[in-house]
Amino acid sequence: MTHFATSSLCSDRRSLHTDAGCSTSLAMNRLLIGILCGIAFGIADALMVVFGKHPDRTTSLILQAFFSRFAIGVLAANVSFRLHPALSGAIVGLLIGLPDALAQKSYLGILGTGLIFGPLTGWAAMKWAQ
Fold first, then answer.
1. pLDDT at position 10 over 70
2. Tell me, what DSSP letter sits at residue 82?
3. Which residues does 75 contact at the CB level (< 8 Å), separation at least 6?
4. What does DSSP assign to residue 15?
């Protein structure tokens, strides 16, 4: 009786069935992955601005850091280049970070986080997207 209850419960959740029972799938929507990564990386980058050595810690700079990384998360998870998703994410991170880096003359910090967060988002989308 337990086997049948488990099987019907697993089939209701659209998960994969195996001989040993059922296993759940962690597949998510690409947009949701991008939004979650964008929020996480945006908060991380905003905290780096707040606790970093940048002399100008205005609200606009903190919001710029957050939304720039949020855009990297959303776009890196959803672009469709004919490349590995991590490499596509790196390209997105570089392209979004480059104008900010040029404007603030802070190349290593801004481009570095873009080149880290972009590939991580691309990898996450490859791993968990439907």
1. no
2. S
3. 34, 92, 96
4. P
